[in-house]
Amino acid sequence: MFAGYYKHPEMTEAALAGNVYHTLGLAWKDEWGYYWYVGQADDVIKSSGYRIGSFEVESALLDHPAVLECAITGVPDPLRGQIVKATVVLKPGYQASDAMVKELQDHVKHLTAPYKYPRKVEFVAELPKTISGKVRRFEIRNRDSGK
Length: 147
Prior knowledge:
Helix content is 27%, strand content 30%. By secondary structure, it is an alpha+beta fold. The radius of gyration is 17 Å and the shape is globular.
């Protein structure tokens, strides 16, 4: 399927355990037999015992008229384990401010469960991306952890 993770042989070995390729995708099955995609295992945030999928919070933020694009990551928190962090690119005509942070947080609380809102919001000019345009969340996580 693929040769491996670039410069990460331990990740390659874990992904190719046995004869099975483990994608790290997480989903759940409801009582009617439908599968619901949650996100990648490394993109799921555990905060105060809750499992929060980055996809759901990103979808809620992208529903706000000021948000051009965003990425959701978890950042360490001594009380909660992790907190939800939103890295946000605003559309032209919108300004980063404390009021905008509160507006985005309230928007997510309204569209999802209240515990899923981003407790930290960072406004950036652009998100780090791969050559194909996929957001490089690990780069945001590494920057936040000082790596």
